[in-house]
Design goal:
Distance between the termini: 71 Å
CATH architecture of one domain: Orthogonal Bundle
CATH class of one domain: Mainly Alpha
CATH topology of one domain: Arc Repressor Mutant
Structural class: mainly alpha
Strand content: under 5%
Radius of gyration: 25 Å
Order of helices and strands: HHH
Helix content: 40-55%
Number of strands: 0
Largest sheet: none
Length: 86
């Protein structure tokens, strides 16, 4: 049984062609995205208790922390989708 030799004609030109990137998707301002963070158990419990001691939910405390970082970076604050903020 004989095998056909592979055809490498045009291989270098096909490999060097740059692919055209897709245009960015339009931003949906009402869409909600989820983020995850990994913490040690002790740090997670400390954060939860600290938020509860200040009358905040974990969600509200995280959004407040993110907004402090955004303020430091000179960015607009993030909205909390669980409240009526926009």
């Amino acid at each position: 049984m004989t095998k056909n030799a592979p055809d490498f004609t045009g291989f270098a030109t096909r490999a060097s062609q740059v692919k055209k990137s897709a245009p960015p998707l339009p931003r949906d301002t009402d869409a909600v995205r989820h983020l995850q963070v990994r913490l040690t158990r002790n740090d997670a419990v400390r954060f939860k208790r600290g938020a509860e001691d200040r009358g905040l939910t974990i969600q509200s405390a995280l959004v407040e922390a993110i907004n402090r970082v955004f303020a430091e970076w000179g960015e607009a604050p993030a909205a909390d989708p669980t409240t009526s903020q926009k």
